[in-house]
Automatic annotation (TrEMBL), chain A:
It catalyses: N(6)-[(R)-lipoyl]-L-lysyl-[protein] + 3-methyl-2-oxobutanoate + H(+) = N(6)-[(R)-S(8)-2-methylpropanoyldihydrolipoyl]-L-lysyl-[protein] + CO2. The keyword Repeat does not apply. This is 2-oxoisovalerate dehydrogenase subunit alpha. It is an enzyme of class 1 (oxidoreductase). Belongs to the BCKDHA family. One of its GO terms (biological process) is branched-chain amino acid catabolic process. It comes from Pseudidiomarina andamanensis.
From TrEMBL, chain B:
SMART domains: Transket_pyr (SM00861). One of its GO terms (biological process) is branched-chain amino acid catabolic process. Keywords: Oxidoreductase, Thiamine pyrophosphate. Residues 4-180 form the Transketolase-like pyrimidine-binding domain. The branched-chain alpha-keto dehydrogenase complex catalyzes the overall conversion of alpha-keto acids to acyl-CoA and CO(2). It contains multiple copies of three enzymatic components: branched-chain alpha-keto acid decarboxylase (E1), lipoamide acyltransferase (E2) and lipoamide dehydrogenase (E3). GO terms for molecular function: branched-chain 2-oxo acid dehydrogenase activity. It comes from the Bacteria. This is 2-oxoisovalerate dehydrogenase subunit beta. InterPro entries: THDP-binding, Transketo_C/PFOR_II, Transketolase-like_Pyr-bd, Transketolase_C. It is an enzyme of class 1 (oxidoreductase). Its cofactor is thiamine diphosphate.
Amino acid sequence: MAKDKQHQLDIVTKPQFIDGSALKIPMLQILAEDGTIRKGAEQPEMDKELALKIFDTMQFIRILDERMIAAQRQGRISFYLSSLGEEAASIGSAAALSDDDMIMGQYREQGALAFRGFTVEQFMNQLFSNERDLGKGRQMPVHYGCAELNFMTIASPLATQIPQATGYAYGQKMDKSGNCTICYFGEGAASEGDFHAALNMAAVYKVPAIFFCRNNGYAISTPSQGEQYAGDGIAPRGVAYGMKTIRVDGNDLFAVYKATQLARQLAVEENEPVLIEGMSYRMAGHSTSDDPTGYRTREEEDAWRAKDPVVRFQKWLQNQAWISEDEAQKNYDEKKAAVLAALKSAETVPVPHIDEIIEDVYDTPPKHLKKQLEALKAHIRKYPEAYPKTASRIDGGDK
Amino acid sequence: MAKMNLLQAINNALDIAMAKSDKVYSFGEDTGAFGGVFRATSGLTEKYGRHRNFNTPLVEQGILGFANGLASQGSYAVAEIQFGDYIFPAFDQIVNESAKFRYRSGDEFNVGGLTIRTPYGGGIAGGHYHSQSPEAYFAHTPGLKIVMPRNPYMAKGLLLSAIFDKNPVLFMEPKRLYRASVGEVPEEEYTLELGKADVVKEGKDITVLAWGAQVEMAEKAAEMAAKDGIDCEVIDLVSILPWDVETVAESVRKTGRLVITQEAPITGGFASEVAATIQDECFLYLESPIARVCGLDTPYPLSHEKEYFVDHLKVYEAIKASMTY
Ligand SMILES: Cc1ncc(C[n+]2csc(CCOP(=O)(O)OP(=O)(O)O)c2C)c(N)n1
């Protein structure tokens, strides 16, 4: 076949359109739905301690999600967003990283944060926007962040973290830190311009970044196939941008773990950015403000319940005789008690002092903000009953 | 007449517009069969089909780029941005394209058929990414119209005007009032003039100017002030761009005082524009400095929402301060 010298392309002499279906990316699965290793698959190395830590985190997140949805229904917090059904995706990937790799999440990755060691008290303080919240009570519930655990604070505007991950990873590369950045987002967010900018730049600059798309089938009410995208999902976009890409069963802890391990190696050792698409399902509503019965069927949800990532991993653990059903239940009950206790206690902690309203807009509050704060305080003193959360502590009991 | 809340009035306006012309399209994130996260577009897919009311992929710059193209083709594009806070990815399409289409092409092309609907404002425990009032960013751009209704009656008449107006219109809906504001709304088609302020309550002592959700705060403050014997004239500006200088100036010439309330931060806000213009127009009539009651120059904080919010008490204090200046 003749070659075009400048572009190094094969030349054809008849028109040829390449159909999208020519590139159908397969999905890696290692752990079958019944908790056994799939025929032909190789179980990744994982010692008992790590396996149990992963399971522990999974159980904790299940309880946290369940309890906080209930707390929202009781009007104790304003909003919550669960990761039901996607625990393997976030925990399995976080487990394959080094603790000093950066995590940039979307908002459904509480599992990754818990795996890093964010405590139940820290979760609760954020959820209740109290004065112990590391984010100082400024953002809605689930917008966690923790510098100590290398978990970038979540922002609500979707996809903005994706190009930031490219930039962060570029810094890591230039510093020769030996670390990478993992960036999570949904298949909906992957429609945003930011996603495309991020992948293109990451591939061009060859940065140590892992882009982890949680394809859970829905962006609020919009189904992914046909309304979010046409074609074969998110993975082919990685290929198109010139990036190593893999699609995994996002409900399979081992597939996620193995793929992320290999991705980390590529990122850190060869500065190859990687795109991972984890195929999963959002088992709960989008958030507590959403009612999924308005746009999908019970049967569809039930079908996915059979693929439950936590049950699947537990079966495998039981097959190893690393945990028994009774032990799992006992751990579950203990964690539930801890979650309830932390919830009760965080609820009674006051909101941040009103003085904090002007902090962190800049490194130090400029004059005009100080003046605005003083005017606000004078107003609150005049109408203490209208601002009950702050009035009593405005003078005296000050920070 | 029928009792409708603000969402129902908007839905009703969309329904009437889509029935009136099959060139009207409604689209945005989750706006299809589900009817949008606030349900403003519910029922439209059933009635007009999924080619006229539909979900878009999750990309605001795409939604507005698409809407600009569709409107330039001669259609009426009604694009929803799910929250005003998420309009910024589409900023370039709106500010550089929608606003300048007609001017830059010598009117060879225009996007007059474009309407951008978006919920704005706080008071819903939304933190700083579900509470912003971004009207001032857009008011700085010639070529756009900006409208902010305060109740269901206004919303329906203004939205129908906006959709068929010959200019791109940014239609900002006060989400705190979506269900809270209920009122009598004619079932048939009617329109309200864009660019015209509405005198909500006449009074002789002081003019209180507001728009959108803040009108309610102005009215409540005026009620409090009435108990002190202060007679407020309350004006709803309705249209931010172009805005009704004449109605406001006329009122201020009568009362000699002006308090402007605005939910957004004070610096660079639209209240500042109004203050400067009215000072120009009415300098010799003013009995006290024009006062602005606005949000602080900080992002909207979740845990201090109540303190941050421009409530009726803050407006009332400003009225008293102006009266005793
Ligand atoms: C720029 C922007 N537009 C819209 C929204 C509103 N919004 C919040 S979550 C969401 C859906 C996200 O779907 P996806 O990325 O697939 O993640 P999932 O919720 O399914 O995990 C939307 C539209 C937003 N937060 N930011």
